[in-house]
Amino acid sequence: MKTGLVLEGGAMRGLFTAGVLDAWYQAGVRFDGIIGVSAGAVFGCNYKSGQPGRVLRYNKRFCREWRYCSWRSWLLTGDLFGAEFCYRDLPEKLDVFDCEEYGRNPVEFYMVCTDVHTGRAVYHRAPVVDGECYEWMRASASMPLVSRIVRVGGGEYLDGAVADSIPLRYFEGIGYGKNVVILTQPEGFVKKPSRGMGLLKIFLRKYPAFLKALANRHKVYNETVAYVEKQAAAGKVLLIRPEERLPVGRLCHDPELLQKTYDIGFRTGKKYLPEIQRFTTTGCSAD
């Protein structure tokens, strides 16, 4: 039975996930497959490339760099997270992503994007990292309104979280019988309808199916969390999430807060280490 790792997004809340994963990677925990959404994809790929610490390092180093993430970047390029800086300069020059190790590692890696024409999730498997793969990553993490539509692989995409924030069902459907799910919101969190639908309807009026997915996103998200919790209660899923609301939101330009969020994740990973080791070898979580 294949063991999967399912990673929610959440932009800078993803530093929690990075901390959890670094604790597990250092302890030798491995999976057969990983699927990430948005920050879950952009940060989670470092597990396959064998680069613990990289996510925290470059986020702390560049969080105040306008080309990385800023309203200035949005005004000048159309992307809050600068496409050229984040998906070219950073992985190729400034904090090099290990494409060779990523390609050698047999773990299957998937990322989720939302097709702007259908409003449906697209699940892209990425066996190697190249220029096109970076574009898939960018698409998965491109939040509506503050990002340009990404054209890659013959389609047009935005944020994967719009259609499928927690792709557990997809992984179950392709043969991953036991899964670890990492969320970036605490127990009891309930997603509410988007407050920006008025602007979204103006700027994305050419994409009615995508707008419908946005309008229903909170309902789908809350139902999916309930499903994850049900699977966890049945012992089919090991659910990891912060014990309380994280100190960062989707955006953060404070290196100390990023470190604090990462540290919370690292401690959580350490806490669950015996359980994750048991789960990945037997498929059964602790009672």
Which tags fit this structure?
8-stranded mixed β-sheet; alpha/beta; 12 helices; single chain
Layout of SSEs?
Blueprint: E1 2-7, H1 14-26, E2 33-37, H2 39-48, H3 54-62, H4 71-77, H5 83-94, H6 99-104, E3 108-115, E4 121-125, H7 131-140, E5 150-152, E6 155-159, H8 168-173, E7 176-182, H9 197-203, H10 208-233, E8 237-240, H11 255-271, H12 273-282
Parallel strand pairs: 1-2, 1-7, 2-3, 7-8
Antiparallel strand pairs: 3-4, 3-6, 5-6
In short:
With 287 residues, the chain is α/β, with parallel strands linked by helices. The protein contains 12 helices and 8 strands. Strand 3 and strand 4 form a beta hairpin.
Describe this structure in words.
By secondary structure, the protein is an alpha/beta fold. The chain is 46% helix and 15% strand. Helix 1 runs parallel beside helix 2, helix 1 crosses helix 11 and helix 3 runs antiparallel to helix 11 (255-271). The longest helix has 26 residues, at 208-233. It starts with a strand and ends in a 5-residue tail after the last helix.
